[in-house]
Write a structure and sequence with these properties.
Shape: elongated
Largest sheet: 7 strands, mixed
Number of helices: 8
Distance between the termini: 83 Å
Number of strands: 14
Structural class: alpha/beta
Length: about 325
């Protein structure tokens, strides 16, 4: 049986999930030797980035900064410390063979879906968009594929109706901490970690998402729009539309229970407390907590009942063509 200190565990991560699970492991007195992370100077464009350097300093955890874990410099820095295991708390890069081989035992990968369903990118937004009522955090022995390694176990959880992506984030972070702690105890006690193939039944692979995918389309059905707003809310960039040549971000949404107002698509029908009622293809939605791009709240006086949000593409093209012909 291995005694505490006979193995060297690294973690890797730089987001909210990483912080919550690393904090949980530290609270449970797990000995984490090193965190591989992204420095704040390179975090631009990472919507859910968390700077973990101060936390590591406070808890005596060594840090290796990197943008590319597969770089020669990063692999050499890891090899000098001779680690045994790596716990992947939250990292989007695919690990190459040389990086994986830096750990004498193996690399524990995680993915917040019931693998083999939901391999690939942006798992939490896609989970909301797909309207799933349950999911899992899968723990597996990482290989060079995309979420294809042999499973250690899966921690399943229910997703309440109307869940926002931040709530889902919190659920996943909790399961990550509990799962990694379970694996840590297996290692500490010298117990066998059993692995099982994922199989090929039910495989799905999700694509990358960008901030531009948060554009609210007014010719969509209200169910799709409602899920989009919940899927890209904090900590992501948010859903958005254009109005009076400004980009407006929407962070919350409600279905219209009264259903007594109707109008043409894109039209503002009513204003409430920090929200506007807008017509979509098959009904109306309350768009809530509008802000400017810089995060400042939008005064509801800015919105005029009867106005239409977004752009009418054909009218805009006509204006541009007319302007060009007149120049």
């Amino acid at each position: 049986m291995a005694q505490n200190g006979d193995f060297k565990i690294f973690c890797i991560g730089s987001n909210l999930e990483s912080y919550e699970s690393l904090k949980f492991l530290v609270e449970k007195k797990c000995k984490i030797h090193t965190l591989i992370t992204l420095p704040s100077s390179l975090s631009e464009g990472v919507s859910d980035y968390i700077d973990l350097h101060d936390f590591c300093i406070q808890n005596g955890i060594n840090v290796i900064d990197t943008r590319n874990v597969n770089s020669k410099e990063t692999v050499e820095a890891i090899n000098r410390l001779k680690p045994d295991y790596l716990f992947t708390l939250g990292w989007s890069q695919i690990f190459k063979e040389e990086f994986i081989a830096s750990f004498s035992k193996f690399v524990v990968g995680t993915h917040p879906s019931k693998l083999p369903h939901g391999r690939g990118r942006a798992p939490l937004p896609w989970t909301v968009l797909e309207g799933l009522d349950n999911s899992a955090v899968s723990f597996f022995k990482i290989d060079t594929g995309v979420d294809t390694g042999k499973l250690i176990f899966q921690r399943e959880f229910e997703i309440p109706k109307g869940t926002y992506v931040k709530d889902l984030y919190d659920m996943v972070a909790k399961e990550l901490g509990l799962g990694f702690y379970e694996i840590y105890k297996l290692i500490e006690n010298g117990e066998t970690i059993h692995l099982s193939d994922q199989g090929n039944t039910g495989v799905t692979v999700r694509g990358k998402r960008t901030p531009e995918d948060g554009l609210i389309e007014f010719d969509q059905d209200i169910s799709s729009v409602e899920k989009l707003i919940r899927a890209v809310s904090e900590p992501y960039p948010g859903a958005y539309f254009y109005y009076k040549d400004q980009k407006i971000i929407i962070w919350e949404v409600d279905f219209d229970l009264e259903k007594i107002y109707s109008g043409t698509k894109r039209q503002i029908l009513k204003k409430g407390e920090n929200k506007i009622l807008v017509q979509f293809a098959n009904g109306t939605l309350w768009l809530k907590r509008p802000t400017q791009v810089d995060g400042r709240a939008v005064d509801l006086k800015f919105f005029k009942i009867g106005d239409k949000l977004g752009y009418n593409v054909q009218d805009e093209i006509f204006k541009l063509k007319t302007q060009k012909n007149n120049d």
